[in-house]
């Protein structure tokens, strides 16, 4: 089976968040199920610099949303890629979605409409000798692919729209519609129209054969007004086409026994070797070496991630006897709040702003626990990395966090099945109480080691989830959706 995966980012080529980890790992996982994936991405400068002489132009455009463009076929690091090379849209300094100052590109509507238009052409067979059986679009940046397919006269494959985070929707003014080159009837409530404007994610959800999101609990949450972000009505209307499939992680890249980013590799049998990683962390974050439980945060510093709640509780957490190492960036006010806390609690709180992939691995390999206080979380990947590395997850009871962590209550600890700590989202008191419970278990070295080993037994690979995707793809093809 041939699948076209359409996404705006993909590890190890371009990454701003967990979307890239998923789109980078899933193709390899699907290969074992007899599914061949070609991944379509914008040809950002970082990708263009990695093209080799073996790369070839598969399709050309004289004018694609304001300039010439082409689709390039390439193989890089074992991935089969189709890259939209549109220099007027993607060859610029800055990030995937915005400039170096953190502002979104004003023409994102055109950039990702062009990307979607090209992906729809691939879906219709414009690449000589290859046509996908299924098209798999990820998040709003790829969602218009399915709208273009819907209004195209050429026959197209069945499609899957995966929502990684419903909060990011790609909403633009109605004035862009004439430039999208869609038929007039597309500007309707059952098309791309959304609250008087154009909604890219909404259009994809409307046009997809089926919709998936990244955990069973999140799929139920987004059907409610609280989490539906204005799309709960549409999603409830498509409940029979809605599926929750948990994300996995690349267990070859995230493996404490072979991880090149660690000062010392280890296994569940050699947990004592984690101490070497801890020492490096204490030095990097300028923390006291006194045996206190070391909690880490690896996150965007935003409201969704509950970072404002955590920042307000740092003094109480430190007062309980824990240390905190924070790696992240985001809202400037929240960055400032954590930096100020590190200054007030020298030796107890350390902060590194920005994102550092190697340091993220080291934190998982040396900290005692990872704290994830999200208000909502579609799936989450950092808690899966934590399980894999024996860095005990402390998570809000929401979305995929609730689906993947077994709370260390008395019964679960006694039965030996606990893998972390859950607490109610949106509450500082709940976070502090969870830290209190963690410290109590941490004092009992035998109980703590058992908890770590149980966490590390959890299957966080793509094995089960890739099987679910494979079954879904095959059902779409066999039913002729």
From TrEMBL:
Molecular function GO terms recorded: alpha-1,4-glucan glucosyltransferase (ADP-glucose donor) activity
Reactions performed catalytically: [(1->4)-alpha-D-glucosyl](n) + ADP-alpha-D-glucose = [(1->4)-alpha-D-glucosyl](n+1) + ADP + H(+)
HAMAP family, A to Z: Glycogen_synth
Pathway(s) where this gene product acts: Glycan biosynthesis; glycogen biosynthesis
Species annotation: Aquamicrobium zhengzhouense
Function: Synthesizes alpha-1,4-glucan chains using ADP-glucose.
Domain Glycosyl transferase family: start-end pairs: 288-445
Keywords: Glycogen biosynthesis, Glycosyltransferase, Transferase
Family (UniProt): Belongs to the glycosyltransferase 1 family. Bacterial/plant glycogen synthase subfamily.
EC number: 2.4.1.21
Name assigned to this protein: Glycogen synthase
This protein's record includes keyword Transferase: yes
Residues binding ADP-alpha-D-glucose: 15
Domain of life: Bacteria
Enzyme class, broadest EC rank: transferase
All residue ranges annotated as the Starch synthase catalytic domain in the record: 2-236
Pfam families named in the record: Glyco_transf_5, Glycos_transf_1
Family matches, as NCBIfam families: glgA (TIGR02095), PRK00654.1-2 (NF001899)
């Amino acid at each position: 089976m041939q699948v076209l995966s359409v996404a705006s980012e993909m590890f190890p080529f371009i990454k701003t968040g967990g979307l890239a980890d998923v789109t980078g790992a899933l193709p390899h996982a699907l290969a074992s199920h007899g599914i061949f994936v070609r991944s379509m991405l914008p040809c950002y400068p970082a990708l263009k610099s990695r093209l080799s002489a073996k790369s070839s132009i598969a399709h050309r455009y004289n004018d694609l949303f304001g300039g010439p463009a082409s689709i390039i076929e390439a193989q890089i690091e074992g991935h089969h890629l189709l890259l939209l090379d549109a220099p007027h849209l993607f060859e610029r300094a800055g990030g995937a979605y915005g400039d170096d100052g953190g502002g979104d590109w004003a023409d994102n509507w055109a950039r990702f409409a062009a990307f979607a238009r090209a992906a729809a052409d691939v879906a219709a067979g414009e690449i000589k000798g290859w046509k996908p059986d299924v098209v798999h679009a990820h998040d709003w940046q790829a969602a218009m692919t399915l709208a273009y397919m819907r209004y195209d006269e050429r026959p197209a494959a069945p499609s899957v729209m995966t929502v990684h985070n419903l909060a990011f929707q790609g909403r633009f003014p109605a004035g862009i519609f004439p430039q999208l080159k869609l038929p007039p009837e597309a500007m309707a409530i059952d098309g791309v129209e959304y609250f008087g404007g154009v909604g890219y994610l909404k259009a994809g959800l409307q046009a997809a054969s089926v919709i998936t999101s990244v955990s069973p609990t999140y799929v139920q949450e987004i059907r409610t007004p609280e989490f539906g972000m204005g799309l709960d009505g549409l999603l409830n209307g498509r409940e029979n086409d809605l599926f929750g499939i948990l994300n996995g992680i690349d267990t070859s890249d995230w493996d404490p026994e072979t991880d090149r980013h660690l000062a010392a590799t280890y296994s569940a049998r050699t947990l004592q070797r984690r101490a070497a990683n801890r020492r490096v962390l204490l030095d990097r974050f300028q923390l006291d070496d006194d045996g206190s439980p070391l909690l880490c945060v690896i996150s965007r510093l935003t409201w969704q991630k509950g970072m404002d709640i955590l920042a307000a509780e740092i003094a109480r957490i430190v007062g309980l006897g824990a240390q905190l190492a924070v790696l992240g960036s985001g809202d400037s006010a929240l960055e400032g709040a954590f930096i100020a806390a590190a200054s007030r609690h020298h030796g107890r709180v350390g902060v590194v702003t920005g994102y550092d992939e190697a340091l993220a691995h080291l934190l998982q390999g040396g900290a005692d626990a990872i704290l994830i206080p999200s208000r909502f979380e579609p799936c989450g990947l950092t808690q899966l990395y934590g399980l894999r590395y024996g860095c005990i997850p402390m998570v809000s009871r929401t979305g995929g966090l609730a689906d993947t962590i077994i709370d260390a209550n008395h019964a679960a600890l006694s039965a030996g099945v606990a893998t972390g700590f859950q607490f109610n989202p949106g509450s500082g008191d709940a976070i502090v109480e969870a830290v209190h419970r963690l410290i109590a278990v941490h004092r009992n070295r035998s109980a703590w080691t058992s908890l770590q080993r149980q966490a590390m037994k959890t299957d966080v690979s793509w094995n089960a989830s890739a099987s679910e995707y494979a079954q879904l793809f095959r059902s779409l093809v066999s039913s002729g959706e």
